[in-house]
Design goal:
By secondary structure, the protein is an alpha+beta fold. Helices cover 24% and strands 23% of the residues. Among the domains are: 21-51; 77-229, Umud Fragment, subunit A. A hairpin with a 2-residue loop joins strand 9 (185-186) and strand 10. The two termini are 38 Å apart.
Length: 272
């Protein structure tokens, strides 16, 4: 703070005529306007700093993380949680390493790099295998109380992963990943390389994730969802139109049905 004082003139300095009052009103109004503009600029700068470095809002447009996250959940994402880029000051900040089980928001490696949210299953150096729909990390089965399975789903990697060299379902994989996946398979396990992460959706048989397009590089990870600040009943189709007009229609529809469409029981719920 700059120590600028705010208050009224003491009685002994109050204007004693209407003419003097008029002559003094202009600078006082100008000062009030300047204070307002200064406060507004500071607020904008703090908001820009917060959304750039600390926290950012996102919404969930797909079913891949159900039941943990539902379509229409609006999240606050902590961008100040995971370890930095190796600078000397990183040790002075409240960073931590990315761990298995963390839910992360990241930029999808392809196309126009939209934001995705998934759960970290494998960290650098881990060996991943799925057998009988159970996930094994470094030859040990992991507990997944958050995972949901659909035995009727058409998911080639829902029960067994990684594929055998002669059984790569190339039509279901990103072409880039289909060409590289076997480079990371050793003795029937997928080896997660340095600085990369293997992620999957909690809605295990309806998730477009690392099984189908590859690893997430550390540089693409934005942060960790920490809170559902608002949730609205919605479908994937409601978020299909990503144009400005489509977004405006979506906002208008939500506002028109705000009370009836809000999932009040999910408000201010922590994300785990």
């Amino acid at each position: 703070m700059d120590g600028t004082e705010v208050g009224t003139a003491p009685p002994e300095l109050a204007p004693d005529s209407a003419a003097e009052a008029g002559s003094r009103s202009a600078p006082r109004s100008s000062g009030a306007l300047a204070d307002f503009v200064e406060s507004l600029l500071v607020t904008i700068l703090l908001a820009l700093f917060a959304t750039t470095f600390v926290v950012q809002a996102f919404k969930i447009p797909s079913q891949s993380m159900e039941p943990t996250l539902l379509v229409g959940d609006h999240l606050l994402v902590n961008k100040f949680v995971f370890e930095g880029s190796g600078e000397w000051y990183d040790k002075l900040l409240p960073y931590r390493a990315i761990r298995r089980g963390d839910i992360v928001v990241f930029k999808y490696p392809y196309d126009d790099h939209p934001y995705y949210v998934k759960r970290v299953i494998g960290v650098p150096g881990d060996r991943i295998r799925i057998a009988g729909s159970r996930v094994f990390v470094n030859e040990k089965p992991i507990l997944e109380p958050y995972a949901e399975h659909d035995p009727l789903a058409d998911d080639p990697f829902g029960g067994e992963f990684p594929p055998a060299p002669d059984a790569v379902p190339r039509g279901r994989l990103r072409p880039e990943w289909a060409a590289r996946i076997m480079h990371y398979v050793h003795d029937g396990e997928l080896l997660v390389p340095a600085n990369d992460y293997f992620v999957m959706g909690d809605n295990r048989d309806d998730s477009w994730d690392s099984r189908y397009w590859g690893f997430v590089n550390r540089s693409a990870i934005v942060g960790e969802p920490i809170l559902i600040y608002w949730s609205v009943r919605a479908t994937t189709d409601d978020y299909a139109d990503r144009s400005l007009a489509g977004s405006a229609r979506g906002i208008g529809s939500t506002l028109a049905h705000l009370t009836s469409s809000t999932r009040w029981h999910r408000m201010l719920r922590e994300v785990h």
